[in-house]
Task: structure prediction
Amino acid sequence: MDAGYNSICAYTQHELELRDSAKKLIDSLKHVQKKGHFKLKRSISYQAYYRDENGKWKSQACKLIKAMNGETAQESHTFQLSSETTPEGVKAISPQLAASLATAHGATLRRSIDYTLLPDSLGYYRGTTDSIYQPNGHGCWQGYDGTYYEGYWKNGKREGFGFSIAPKKPLRIGEWKNDRYKGERLVYTSDRIYGIDLSKYQHGKGRKKYAINWNRLRITHLGRLSKKTVSGTVNFPIRFIYIKSTEGKSLLNPYYRKDYRDAKAHGYKVGSYHFFTTITPAAEQARHFLKHSIIRKGDFPAVLDVEPLPSQIKKMGGAGVLFARIRTWLRIVERATGVKPILYISQTFVNRYLPKAPDLKHNYQVWIARYGEYKPDIRLVYWQLCPDGRVAGIHGEVDINVFNGYDDAFQSFVKSKTVK
Result:
């Protein structure tokens, strides 16, 4: 992320300089008299390249002090550093000897310039290329429509780390593969903000029942379903807990109230969620959730867990009907709690259905379940990174979640987005 941050800062500074330059030009043009005249001045600057005493290439600004005024081999331009000094590690020779060396045998001594500019009908590329002049290595693409990408390339396609800015699209920074954006590859450290979600399954299955040891809660494993990059040992503190409260219009989590009270007593930020079903009216589900859930000042926003199968969506009348019911639940719960609920959905649901409901995508924060190595490319508040994590003090597997941001963003979320 540091590399991405620095790249974006450099890009931002460059754009600000261009904007300021354009503003000055526009301001100057506005003050030109109607019968005024323009004068265009050509300005040429020079740089001298040399190796220092350690053999590294250096450059300094220089000035032209004598221009070539003939066509003989002994005629040449003469330059001097703007500082009028001789660089360290460079041996001074006379202008006459320099001219002789520069034109010896008709060959010019010059350093090759590692610079490539490849224009086409859509924009231009600036950076390194391969043997057939395809973008390869590090480079920047600037489209005539405002599209910009800076990062790594392979065989003419974006490959590796980079960031992209495009009109009407969010900033995308992370990993690219075969010209497609994969997402941000997170490094899991103790600096990130982790949470878990609980239901009756954390208390056992069948006849065996298990209590939660609230004094021992620490994340000890991030699951095995996907590849993850971890810095240090997985022994992470838990900062927030979501607890399943209700399902449909009649089902209850028998452990909800005790888990809620215990989590609050141990200082955790707590939220409640409802599991949405496709066979009961949304308004009844919302009232069921509000009747049986504990919602107090400082609690995290309510969550609507939406996980229907394609066959269930089809049976209820299609995605349009589903989204109408989702909106109903969200509106009722928001009016009752004073806080916009969060939508819990899967990456598959995002790809297949969410584009059909742009209002939900843009107006509600998302908690997404995606069990891969890349962070989801969507406006999210939490990311469920695995369903098979391990937590000291809890028997069996636990869903592990990470907040989208570090402690400063988390504190801002707690202050502005929780129940008042």
